[in-house]
Automatic annotation (TrEMBL):
Keywords of this entry: Membrane, Symport, Transmembrane, Transmembrane helix, Transport
Keyword Transport assigned: yes
Protein name (database record): Transporter
Annotated TM spans: 12-30, 42-64, 85-115, 144-163, 175-196, 216-241, 253-278, 298-331, 343-364, 384-402, 423-444
Subcellular location as annotated: Membrane
CDD domains: SLC6sbd_Tyt1-Like (cd10336)
Family matches, as InterPro entries: Na/ntran_symport, SNS_sf, YocR/YhdH-like
Species assigned in the record: Priestia iocasae
Protein family according to the UniProt entry: Belongs to the sodium:neurotransmitter symporter (SNF) (TC 2.A.22) family.
PANTHER family: TRANSPORTER (PTHR42948:SF1)
Annotated membrane topology: Multi-pass membrane protein
Alphabetical list of Pfam families matching this protein: SNF (PF00209)
Amino acid sequence: MKKHEQWTSKIGFILAAAGSAIGLGAIWKFPYMTGTNGGGVFLLLFIIFTILIGAPMLLGEFIVGRHTQKDAVRAYQTFSPNGKWHYIGYLGAISAGIILSFYSVIGGWILSYLYRSITGQMHGLSNSQYEDLFNQIISNPYEVVIAQFIFMIMSILVVQGGIQKGIERASRIMMPSLFLLFIVLVIRSLSLDGALEGVKFLLQPKFDQVTPNTFITALGQAFFALSVGLSIMVTYSSYLSKEESLVKSASSVVILNIIISVMAGLVIFPSVFALGFSPDAGPGLIFVVLPAVFNKMIFGSFFFSLFLILLLFATLTSVFSILEVIVSVAVKGKQEKRKQATWVTGILTFIIGIPSALSFGVLADVTIFNKTIFDVADYITANISLPLGALLISIFISLKIPKQVLKEEFAIGSKTLASAFAIWYYCIRFVVPIGIILIFLQIIGVF
């Protein structure tokens, strides 16, 4: 049996963990959620809830993984060998498989758009033609399945290489590239005439637009933005050295996630306002509105291609972490089985995802509770399994991990005050569970 792998450095871990969090949630979902929920006030609430809810949860998962140095299932078994808490790990792995089945579909859409953008097929269309193009792409059974397959192969090839030679190496290239692309696109967006209105929309809170739903939606976005609830961060932190500060690492990931979310807004909203589009376009903002926005810019095709590369990198780094949860549970610490397990789980996930890929074409008439197969997979994970997993993890940390162990892990590598630990411990025991319960109440229609 090979020795349990570790990240080669703290920065490698932070980049990979940030890459997991900075995915479709930050670049696709955050902008359209901001656009449909009041702009600046949503951003403000998102930041507050990220600090109060997301960060404590993230640090809690870090502690579970780093202390045990084991995969998600065996990590929970370490603290509760005779209980049923290890099913949290299985819940995370199953949820990861479902998420990956439709995330890979979106990854395929990005590849399709990137090919068309590079070959010049995206330039010069009318606004309505961009919407028609999107519908054409997602309804073409051959294109969506082939693109999804290519995306999954890209992901498998990285994850099969392991932590150091696969995920960390790719993250060290993709994450700095992602930041550089963001800087270029932000500068281009802010240079447009009329961009200031978009900046004001994003950064200037208008409290008269706040509703109870705004609070709950921002809470949900903050909660999902850091990849907590799937035991992804339990898995990633299990490869972290015992000397590294978990508090500093968690803080770095949270700060990077907030910065990227703001930068995504600064790429999109100044452009949208400057060129006369509406910010409340919803999920179609990226695939329908943005192509039309970039089409009106000088060198728009070039900048839209850069944006798609950025989106592809962000999606891949998220998928690496999601696939790693499944693989680590499958190999159970036997690293010699990693390559085989990665290919088997990756191909199975691709096959499971084919119905989602076909949900907007040949299987469009197949619905469950009036939802397509794609939407059902999204709904189950986003509204049930992720918040349930996070709720169970927060309860597990409170009930099953000795307070002294938590305090020791909290203090490693940093001179944290006892009061800082007390605040975190209060948040993980009370604030996080209450926040998650509020999300559940919103989902069932209480708010």
